[in-house]
Amino acid sequence: MSEETSNTADTTATANAETNVETSTLNTETSSGEANENIGEVKENAIHKVRKAFGRTNEVRQAEALQRAELEQMKKPKNIALEDLNDVELSEGKGVNYKEVVAALPEDAKTLLGNLRADYTRKTQELASQRKELEAQMKALTEGEFFQKVRERAGQEDVALDPYDTKSFESRIEQEVARRLQDMFEPVRQQQELQMRQMKLQEFKTAHPDLESMKTEVADLLKQNTNLTLQDAYFIAKGKKNTSELAALRDEVAERKAKMREVGLKIGQGTSTNPSRPPKGLKGYELYQWFERQKAKKLGT
């Protein structure tokens, strides 16, 4: 009986011990699982934060790079045209030292001015080409063979009408048509002639910039002698101006020599081989050349 009780007690103690061990093991496993879960959550949160921060950094970097690219693009001047400045308020004036102003400009502004100059040159060349084409067309229209025949037919005496000859009526009709065409093209011809004169005048002004300062003298000469051309009037006025300059130069040289004599310097008089007046028969450009030679000789002395 006592042995059975002892065995029962041992069995109970063993069962209790196993139960305690299993409970402890379960608790340990549970704690380990919870700890692992907590660690996993922490890792995931940290990774999420890193990814989020890294993503924000990329977005910021991309935005900054885009902004820098836009700024660089703004710095580079585009190939603008003169029409693009129509909406820009710009002041006008004179007396500006453009060399100093351009030298003080930044490189972008200089490039911008270069683009504008290139656009202006291109437009000027296009206009010149179009004007030449138009002049060629008008010249072919007003000076061509067809227009010559029209003028000849219109300038003839009226064709007599013969009631028995139908060709006389046809010839008279053609003559009237030619006269109407001549009347229609005459303003065109006059306009073309005026434009040609203006173009030649502009070319002459470009070749002789001092014409503007002598326009009054040139105009007076043209009024006095209608047979003179613009070139002849210019060279005559130029020769007269050079004569005055030569006279003033001679006076200045004489005054200088007199002052040098006063201080005791010996001045050679020399002999003048040039006449005081131009040879007879010189006209226009020849007279101008003679005065230029005289002026050069005086300056050489």
UniProtKB/TrEMBL annotation:
- Give the top-rank taxon of the lineage listed in the UniProt record for this protein: Bacteria
Q: Which UniProt keywords apply?
A: Coiled coil
Spans of biased composition, class Low complexity?
Answer: 1-25
Give the compositionally biased regions (Polar residues). 26-35
- Residue segments, region Disordered: 1-42, 264-283
Q: Which residues form a coiled coil?
A: 113-144
Q: What is this protein called?
A: Uncharacterized protein
